[in-house]
Specification:
InterPro entries: DCC1-like, DCC1_Trx. By secondary structure, the chain is of the alpha+beta class. The protein has one domain. 47% of the residues lie in helices and 12% in strands. It is built from six helices and four strands; from the N terminus they run βαβαββαααα. Strands 2-1-3-4 form a four-stranded mixed beta sheet.
Length: 129
């Protein structure tokens, strides 16, 4: 990872996620790299575990700080000219509600896409994905 750039980790097997990433790639003004979770080394000591990366959007800032969930989304969009539209999601009155909505949506997306395979004993699905 280039330390001068923020790096956004996303689920490259999720159609909604890849659509948003395509939009971010097109609109970004530079300084944002994209990393498909499924293409990252499993044994990397610098990355959160694969389930965490797939359950929530993660962004590693240029100085090595990790942000996840709604904050990662807002930070990623700050690399575009539309970033100002996302900043209110971090305001004190709005943030708790927006975070709860994001987390509920992210958990449901993850459960529908991955957890059923885990419950059925198909734990290899995550490692092969």
């Amino acid at each position: 990872m280039d330390p001068r750039y923020d790096t956004l980790f996303y689920d490259g097997q999720c159609p909604l996620c890849t659509r948003e990433i395509r939009t971010l790639r097109r609109l970004q003004r530079g300084r944002l790299l994209f990393a498909d979770v499924h293409e990252q080394a499993q044994d990397s000591e610098t990355l959160p575990n694969r389930e965490q990366l797939l359950r929530r959007l993660h962004l590693m800032t240029w100085d090595g700080e990790w942000v996840s969930g709604l904050q990662a989304n807002v930070r990623a969009w700050s690399h575009t000219r539309l970033g100002f539209l996302f900043r209110p999601l971090l305001w004190p009155i709005i943030h708790p509600i927006a975070r709860a909505v994001y987390e509920r949506w992210a958990d449901r997306r993850y459960e529908r896409k991955y957890a059923c395979a885990l419950c059925a004993g198909d734990g290899d699905r995550l490692s092969q994905s």
